Amino acid sequence: MAAGCTGGTETAGESGGDDGDRLSAFYGQEVDWRECGDGFECGSYEVPLDYGTPDGERLEIAVRRLPASGADVLGSLVINPGGPGGSGYDYVGAATGVVSRAVRERFDVVGFDPRGVGRSSPLTCLDSDELDDFIAVGYDGRGGGADPTDVTPDGLRELEEVNRGFVEGCRERSGDLMLHLGTVNVARDMDVLRAVLGDEGLTYLGKSYGTYIGTRYADLFPERVRALVLDGAIDPGIDQLQLSAQQAAGFETALRAFVEDCLGTSGCPLGDDETSVDDGVEKIVGLMAEAGDEPLRSTTGDGREVNRTRVELGVMAALYSESFWPRVRSALADAFEGDGTGLLMLGDDLYDRDDRESYENSSAALVAVNCSDHPSPRDIGDFEEAVERAAEEAPVFGPTLTWGALPCAYWPEEAVAEPGRLDAPGAAPILVVGTTRDSATPYAWAERLAERLESGVLLTREGDGHTAYRRGSVCVDDAVDAYLLTEEVPPDGTVCVR
Questions:
Q1: What DSSP assignment string belongs to 265-319?
Q2: 466 a catalytic residue
Q3: Strand 58-66 vs strand 41-48: parallel, antiparallel, or unpaired?
């Protein structure tokens, strides 16, 4: 439980007791829904900044829904796309693709921007230009994106300065908000939403980081779980450095799958069907090293150099879904000719940089929530040691992702959640879905989460890409739909072959 959030599961407004009485005004709210185009309805509700002092400052949470298309409505299905920093409000706009027609007939599909994100009291830490520098920080003290395993003394000082500056920027621009952004607070905000929607139990579809919101919710409010689908699971039992290293390993599994596919495709810039996967991967690694020595050119006209860090980000972004693979093949072909524009644009997509306002907030929320949710070392020397280990376990992406956790070394300690069991005792069956070659959330995390949750049931998709539901597997879609509609889970350990 994060500092400032006192009590356990008996703090919600429907639980009774002193805390329940103090929160009853929040649980008794009604959303003033208004039409907001294309059949959607929009509104907002309020939550306390600090659940330990609910009479204090309030936050406004933006919410949007697509009403059920049928007459026999079961209630609301709350959905979250992940992140941290992802907008559930925007995600609902794609509800016809995100959720099946059968489910949309029986449920209002609802999304909200978590506290600190988008339209919900957004956190701000740096302006857009500062974020450009933060994301592309180098390791040689010259901003060149050089080798993350060979950091110069100047590079180490630059890393400290840039990451401390990020945290100081959060303090200056957002004040106490940064102390209350942990997922435990988001889960409690979601329980208020469940109540104001009029649902006795929560029906929820969370993807990627959204699975952690669902896990926190189930542990806080196990008696209020109706049906939770946790797709692309986060393992809640790891610290920030473990999360970074294990995620890097997932990206490398996905990278090898991409390279293997590319080598069997006509015109692959990595070689042909006689080229080994190892050699194909090595060609990408060589490109990264070259960009660290001499950045690639770009045609964006904004002065940004495509250094090693930006090449890595572009490749990683493309590993989230097989649908991106043709685009990254083209971007790599251009990059080998010295033009890094395609890779730069892929990385921009990952950080929502096409919309400068969104880019500014989603990146801030990503760091803030991760640092609030998972303990981290406080000594930069521990990060140096972790980078060495990551280079052995995941040599392509491990060092960069490990350094990417450095802001957490300077995050206010009182804002960091304490580790907990997070096993949701007494909850109804919870469906955990994992994809065997998931890039961003390794399959092992889904296995561990299903085992950790007292009522966890594992559904496996054999395949590539990030998350499973509505990704082309009829087997997965049928199982998830049946669970959402009837609360009946598939047999534990069911495997869907794509």
A1: STT-TT--TTS-HHHHHHHHHHHHHHHHHSPBB-SSSS---B-HHHHHHHHHHHT
A2: yes
A3: antiparallel
pLDDT number for residue 1: 21
Query: Is 208 in the active site?
Result: yes
pLDDT band at 401 (very low <50, low <70, confident <90, very high): very high
The pTM of this model reads: 0.92
Summarize the confidence of residues 56-72 as an average pLDDT.
Answer: 97
Both structure tokens of 137: 């920080």
Q: Decide: 351 and 364 in contact? Cβ < 8 Å.
A: no
Instruction: Quote the CA–CA distance of 23 and 9 in Å, as a whole number.
Output: 13
Q: Mind spelling out the 3-state secondary structure of 89-155?
A: HHHHCCHHHHCCHHHHHHEEEEEECCCCECCECCCCCCCHHHHHHHHCCCCCCCCCCCCCCCCCHHH
Identify the residue whose tokens are 């007292």. 454
Indicate which residue of 87, 208, 363, 439 is catalytic.
208
**From 132, 466, 477, 481, the catalytic residue:** 466
Question: How high is the pLDDT of residue 11?
Answer: 34
Q: Which two tokens stand for residue 113?
A: 């921007």
Please state, in angstroms and rounded to a whole number, the distance separating the CA atoms of residues 431 and 206.
Answer: 11
Residues contacting residue 446 through CB under 8 Å, at least 6 positions apart: 232, 233, 432, 433, 434, 435, 438, 458, 460
Pick from 81-90, 316-325, 453-462, 475-484: least confident: 316-325
Two tokens at 80?
A: 């979250």
Told to judge if 374 belongs to the known catalytic residues of this protein, a careful annotator would answer: no
The residue from 219, 352, 438, 464 that is catalytic is: 438
What percent of the chain clears pLDDT 90, i.e. is strictly above it? 85
The tally of CA atoms less than 13 A away on the side-chain side of residue 327 is 19
Contact 148, 399 (CB under 8 A): yes
| pLDDT tens digits for range 450-466 | 999 999 999 999 999 99
For residues 50-70, give the mean pLDDT.
97
Average pLDDT over residues 342-355: 89
Helices (DSSP H) in 111-263: which residue ranges? 128-135, 153-174, 183-197, 209-220, 240-263
Using CA atoms, how far apart are residues 347 and 312, in angstroms rounded to an integer? 8
- pLDDT tops 90 at residue 19: no
pLDDT value, residue 13: 38
Residue partners of 306: CB distance under 8 A and separation at least 6:
291, 295, 296, 297, 298, 335, 340, 341, 343, 344
Helix (H, G, I), strand (E, B) or coil at 340: coil
Q: Is 54 helix (H, G, I), strand (E, B) or coil?
A: coil
In whole angstroms, what is the distance from residue 484 CA to residue 201 CA?
12
Across the strands, what pairs with 306? 296
